[in-house]
Amino acid sequence: MADGCAIASLGDTSVMVTAVAKTRPPSLSSFVPLTVDYREKAAAAGRIPTNYLRRELGFTEREILTSRIIDRSVRPLFPSSYNWETQLVCNLLAVDGVQDPDVISINAASAALAVSDIPWNGPVGAVRVGMVDNNMVVNPNRKEMNASVLNLVVVAADMNLVVMLDATAECVLQPEFLKAIKTGVKEAQAIVGALKSLRKNYGKSVRLLEKKEISPEIVEAVASLATVRVSDVLQDSSYDKIARDNAVGEVRNDVVETLKEAYPDGQAQVLEAFNMLVKSTFRNLILEQRVRCDGRTPSQLRPISCETDVFKPLHGSSIFQRGQTQVFCTVAFDSLDSALKSDPVSIITGGLKEKNFFLHYEFPPYATNETGRAGSYGGGSSGMGPSLKKHSGQLTSEVLESNGSSSMASICGGSLALMDAGVGVTAPAAGVAVGLVTKYEHDTKHLTDYQLLSDILGIEDYMGDMDFKLAGTKKGITALQADVKVPGLPLKVIMEAVLQGFDAKNEILDIMSRTISLPRSVKKPNWPVSEVMLVPVHKRAKFIGYGGRNIKRLVAETGVQVTQIDDTSWNVFAPNSVAMDEAKDLINEFLTEEREPDLQFGAIYNAKIVEVRDIGVMVTLYNNMNPALLHNSQLDQRKVGDPAPERTGNGGGSGDISKVLWARPGERRDAAVKKGAAVNSFVGDTKPRR
């Protein structure tokens, strides 16, 4: 029943993708309303969901990221006039734990769109490239990926055109990275050829795409009124983001008001014609004059400033400012108990059992002078997530102001904050976004002119053809993400983008090094402390305490967290060194051998009730004594059924000791049996009188 459907398999991992597009009159909007839903069902891994309802619930972070990577792979190839609501549903049918299903899903989505009647300029092919022992491995399995220093997903169309790149790496050198991209593009061509053959033999006839043209008369009228004014605004480098937007908005409002009487029913076309004029003017100025709207040259960076140790109570903090983009990054440490434990399905499909380093990227609406719902996004940090052995760590990056490249600014600020927190990163990392403006021959794929732009503004991202994010250290590349807005780019352009981004990244690292270049070596007084303490097996009961009361007291009084490693080792995590010293004193108190007092046979001692049970009460005669049981038969000369007064009602007859006479010879008094009460007991008497 779907417009297109395909199942792709690699090994024993299989994914089904369906494509459905609604048929309705298109609007003038240039936005493609594409939705991609990728789900990893527990049944595909032979498991049952471990949540309370034992059923599939909301989307996981991995499912959301995979949906995005599929979207970025197919969206650029929809025709520019296509705006029908379209949905791709990716259903994981079976997973073998060896092959990752994300690349398979991209190829299945490409196949489903290729055989459908939906207008689409595909197909595309996707491969994963790893690097094991300096050798390129195409579509590596789980075992090979564990040994790989590179995880690169390459999506390419026919004629070696690159559509999407997504990579994390362990500081791969630039030449090796370029080689990996070329390998992936070459291997993807075989998949593209197979999908073209599939579409030829089994594809449906593509539905006709109705395109609503803007009246040439309206286009000419808008151009005559706005071309000069728009050009002046876009060439005035004194404007900042909001001022430029306001200036363009004033021109737009004047044009709409002027043409309102002449075209009363064509207001939507007037607005669309004006937007097209602004975009074409903006792009032509860059291609013809090689100067950007803020006055920079194509490879020039915006002014950069850095600051660390912003707030003293924080474990690590930094502010990174690049032009009108500003991020505030903080680092917080906690115990290993805070590590994220993966569910069984995520372990099978993703291979990650436990994660103790997190990055949270927050983009509040005020950062762009807007209102809306604030949220956060969790992910990794430029492929350089540090290995924390004694703590769990969280790096939070909050965007305070944004005019493009806020995610890359988070890498720079995050690296500064980690070094300020004394985290032993292998090397500082920085990120930069490279943009692109292209010019093609009319209705062809032949590229006639293009210009790469380092450190792009928000307007350059919106009106340009690529957002190429590159991050790394001085030595090599650690992450890359390329979002292409045209139906593929030649390898030559991609290679130049890598080189230009690499140079810009190194320039940023030089500026960052003036603030901090190495992890802080002098400890801050508020840094957490973690130590492994050895407790002999025969003292473990003293360390834990009856019912765990010593551990509970340790946590309550000092704020530390105690985690058992093995039979004799315990990890003690303290929020600071003062708390650790207090915890050590308490632990020494617990483990100190106290001489047991000499108890005289037949003497009377005060005992403390520590627990009330059905069969009697547990009492101690001195500190650190292991509680001893006084059976119900020893509590009174009468028969006692239950020692707890709250469970025996209000009577005082046989079987009820809510009111019991406790007495020494010649002395009588009333006492209730409850936890914490003091009682008198004979030692050595089998039937004591109390």
Automatic annotation (TrEMBL):
GO terms for biological process: mitochondrial mRNA catabolic process; mitochondrial RNA 3'-end processing. GO terms for molecular function: 3'-5'-RNA exonuclease activity; polyribonucleotide nucleotidyltransferase activity; RNA binding. Residues 2-119, 122-186, 300-423 form the Exoribonuclease phosphorolytic domain. GO terms for cellular component: cytosol; mitochondrion. It is an enzyme of class 2 (transferase). It comes from Orchesella cincta. PROSITE patterns: KH_TYPE_1. Residues 217-297 form the Polyribonucleotide nucleotidyltransferase RNA-binding domain. Keywords: Nucleotidyltransferase, RNA-binding, Transferase. This is polyribonucleotide nucleotidyltransferase.
